[in-house]
Amino acid sequence: MRKDRRVEGVGSRLVRAGLRDLEARFVGHVVVLGDPLWYERFGFAPAPGLACRWCGPHLLALALGGAGPAQGALAYAPAFAAL
User: Fold this and answer.
1) What is the spatial order of strands in the sheet that 45-46 belongs to?
2) Are 28 and 65 in contact (CB under 8 A)?
3) Helix (H, G, I), strand (E, B) or coil at 11
4) Are 71 and 50 contacting, i.e. CB atoms less than 8 angstroms apart?
5) What is the pLDDT of residue 77?
6) Kind plus residue range of the DSSP H or E element containing 61
7) pLDDT tens sequence across 27-75
8) C-alpha–C-alpha distance, residues 79 and 6, integer Å
9) Are 10 and 55 within 8 A, CB to CB?
10) Which of 2, 7, 25, 32 maximizes the CB count within 10 A of its CB?
């Protein structure tokens, strides 16, 4: 996104809309790999109960619809193996 457009909140609106859609579909957890300072505003928090290749401070989870903490091993699409 162009720097002069970042303050418009488009990214935040897209994330909020996506989370509403996922909650309506009864998805229990959403996991992201990203900047904690940006994702914490949506309720994402570190996910110490998750195991994966990218565990660390940038692995964040959000429980939807009253789900408990995210726990277990994450499986990624084969395309991530190249990273």
Assistant:
1) 29-33, 59-63, 45-46
2) yes
3) helix
4) yes
5) 84
6) strand 59-63
7) 899 999 999 999 999 999 999 999 988 889 999 999 998 888 889 998 8
8) 29
9) no
10) 32
Cα–Cα–Cα angle for 14, 79, 70, rounded to 5 degrees: 60
Domain ranges of the chain: 3-69
Give the model confidence (pLDDT) of 13-39 as tens digits.
999 999 999 999 998 999 999 999 999
Q: Is 31 left (phi over 0), alpha (psi -120 to 50) or beta?
A: beta
How would you class 55 by CB atoms within 10 Å of its CB: exposed for 0-12, middle for 13-18, buried for 19 or more? middle
For 30-39, b/e burial (b = at least 16 CB within 10 A) is bebbeeeeeb
